């Protein structure tokens, strides 16, 4: 079924060329999930992959002497064609000594190769600890000894910032293909099969960079990861967590309880992570569960959770346990879970009996993953997240913080929290393990594979007109934006989402499914309603979903063709996340439309900057760019305080009426309100009003002429 054709009232619409069609995310095609790569690294990677393939049966033997993965190491090997390719691709300043290109291990890459591959994929790994802490790193390899000597030099007070940066930079071994997960990193064979079943051909950049760090035999680091939206971070953190638990089950067969926690800011995202996790844990003996109200967790070493997460479960959207009658709930078998996926408040409430007792601990948790970590450590969730972090009392806890955006304040908070924790545990900072940061691409930037349209609509009415054009593709052909369903529309507040939904409800023609094709999703709906809407949108029954920032982060609708920012986002980071709902896993053809009005002008520059950087990352001609330099120069800069205020409250005139009315006379707010009636209902009402007024006029005229009708009947709408 072609949603675009059905939405088009004109049957004369010219068919869109198949070339354009095949580029749409909704076709499900993703040529390559990697966003960054160069011909040099392609050559290098295929040479490495090819060499493995040629050896064929020998691969099995090689597995026996897979070297320890050490991200500080620089294994040496004899010069090969591969090395020569690599050497040719690094600049003179990065030329390496003969030792660097000599290695006694065929499977490992030398530093030049690693550098070439990581650089070409725009992967940057940094040791976040203070240099003194790095110096205390226990060493095992020759190379580490070399590093230690180097560190002595770094003690010199003359070390410039640039030199310090260079000293912190690391070039760990990249993952060349998913087969290496088994052959080189020895993950559980069942887990490897489950990964293979996903049918992914090449690892994305974040997978290429983080999986070796987390699966290697070197001490597992704490890890901060900043990688683009839709780049496969979920798989990157789930594989190591699951593998660690499989190993744990072997080494500690009698220890049962929550071994890993994954925290996410919304129920929708938590539920999605569980669904992804279920595909990976099948047959491994590991259990993954979504936290729900009423579950018992705590320091009795047992997660008393409902057994709806058995590996055989369908993996569809979760139904709410708390919605079930108490009697029914009591009959649900109680079981233990290894991985608990939760929103912060839900877990904090469970650990503190809704904040009536001190927090219980989770003594067995060895892995704490914070997905969308910057929002979890933002003031809104910070206290709850830090409480959860503290509750994970095991000394071997490792944390992973993952997001597409990460302010330096979040990095500082992470560093200080880890430091405090180590001091409390009596461990020397930096001694047991490292805190590394891995960044893919440019930090805090939008993905380069989508088209951004920043549209000046002057007024709220202008925005509505623009949106209606998008909903009627025949009319939209007059403008240059052609956005095919399915797509998301973001508003600033829940009342605005509800009102916009009512406004547009009857805009979709009945032959295209009518009002059932458009829905609204926000946090005031019940959990059951939210799950149903998510399910119907994923199934393609809903084509247009009006929502708030509830869906801005993490949720993965693979095939959505675009995102409409009906209201501008509250910050550049929110823009990055909202528009990142399209263009997932490298899919081309996604569109991000952002409308702005006169009132928004002070807030547009940060968004225009993000678009500009994303277009630069994409490359292409200056003339192709949607953000021209004159616009960037003309847009005003926002003060720090105004930025903060905008981040917390959004555009003042669009705040919920009561809030805005308190602070001003409400006139501005009234002007920005969206009617809660649909355009269709309003047109009907206006006609009715017009008919009544006309009838009154006729009566008055008749009375004046002495000819009054006594029936007073109304003859309906004169259409
Ligand atoms: N190697 C791969 N090849 C192709 N697709 C992949 C690969 N890895 C993951 N994917 C798919 O990419 C999509 C996005 O993955 P995921 O949701 O983990 O992104 P993310 O990085 O967490 O994004 P966000 O920052 O928006 O949360 C998913 O549909 C996932 O199945």
TrEMBL record:
Low complexity bias (residue ranges): 691-707
Transmembrane segments: none
Entry-linked Gene3D superfamilies: P-loop containing nucleotide triphosphate hydrolases
Residue ranges with Polar residues bias: 708-719
Annotated Helicase C-terminal domain residues: 466-635
Compositionally biased region (Basic and acidic residues): 129-143, 152-162, 659-668, 679-688
Family: Belongs to the DEAD box helicase family. DDX52/ROK1 subfamily.
SUPFAM superfamilies, A to Z: P-loop containing nucleoside triphosphate hydrolases
CDD domains, alphabetized: DEADc_DDX52, SF2_C_DEAD
Residue ranges of domain Helicase ATP-binding in the record: 214-424
Record GO biological process: maturation of SSU-rRNA
Subunit structure: Interacts with the U3 snoRNA and is associated with the 90S and 40S pre-ribosomes.
Function: ATP-dependent RNA helicase involved in 40S ribosomal subunit biogenesis. Required for the processing and cleavage of 35S pre-rRNA at sites A0, A1, and A2, leading to mature 18S rRNA.
EC assignment: 3.6.4.13
Record key words, sorted: ATP-binding, Helicase, Hydrolase, Nucleotide-binding, Ribosome biogenesis, RNA-binding
InterPro entries: DDX52/Rok1_DEADc, DEAD/DEAH_box_helicase_dom, DEAD_box_RNA_helicase, Helicase_ATP-bd, Helicase_C-like, P-loop_NTPase
Keyword Hydrolase attached: yes
Record protein name field: ATP-dependent RNA helicase ROK1
